[in-house]
Amino acid sequence: MSKEKWDSSNIPSQNGKIVIVTGSSSGIGYEAAKVLASKGAEVILAVRNLSKGENAQKKIKSFSNEANVFVMELNLASLSSVRKFTENFKSRYSSLDLLINNAGVMIPPYSKTEDGFELQFGTNHLGHFALTGLVMDLLTATPGARIVNVSSAAHKYGNINFEDLNWEKRKYSAWKAYGDSKIANLYFTYELQKRLKKSGSKLLVTAAHPGWTATDLQRNSGFFEFMNIIAQKTEMGALPTLRAAIEPNISGGEYFGPADWMEWRGYPRLVQSNKLSRDEAISNKLWEVSEGLTGVNFKL
After folding, report:
1. pTM surpassing 0.85?
2. Active-site residue, 157 included
3. Looking at 30, 178, 187, 255, which residue is catalytic?
4. Which residues of 146-162 are buried (b: 16+ CB within 10 A; e: fewer)?
């Protein structure tokens, strides 16, 4: 894979493609949705806050008059909302070319989802796990379809404690819980790709991380507001996700991130996640636990 300065000009026409981007009312998700819509894809902004989603929709349409963009409500911290979203989506669409699992929460005070899961693990991992499983039939039936899971360099301090997934026995560390949710995104990527290949499916799953990008995610940390002075713009931060979404000639399980300075900045390239994220025993266990917690079984 070449080391060129890959950007949105490398993306061919996406005419006729149906795309879901979660968490697309701002930040990286918004930028990815904007670019894909400008390339001709029909993009669904899957968002928790409908008014913010509608504002994002207006901005995208002002950027690209022909943009085909729709807003649908999705709260990943609620499994009933995930199910309702997929029912609504399937009532309108019979195919799905690209699912970008981008939405996330980062280092909030301790709280739980509607279903009783620690907020970051429940939203960033379990919500997307359930969503993916519920639209899997459309993805596997759509030729050339792809899933992109947005992780983070923070996966490097993730270490999932299966005895205390909801942090009820330990003193809560928002940072460690965030790292757990981000390594979970990678376990999910690698395990799903492995299972798809075993089933004979040609559906591809990739992952990406944005490096150090100025987004609303950092609002819970004053230090990060300061660090945003040196952060790259969201247009750059979205490029690894976009490359993971459309890069040709890959086999699945690839991970894309910025090329420069500790993977904090720069144009996207193939990168490597840490050794722990590649542990197949953990990824298999997490898969089984996730199916049990969400009640969503992947029929591969």
Report:
1. yes
2. no
3. 178
4. bbbbbbbbbbebbebee
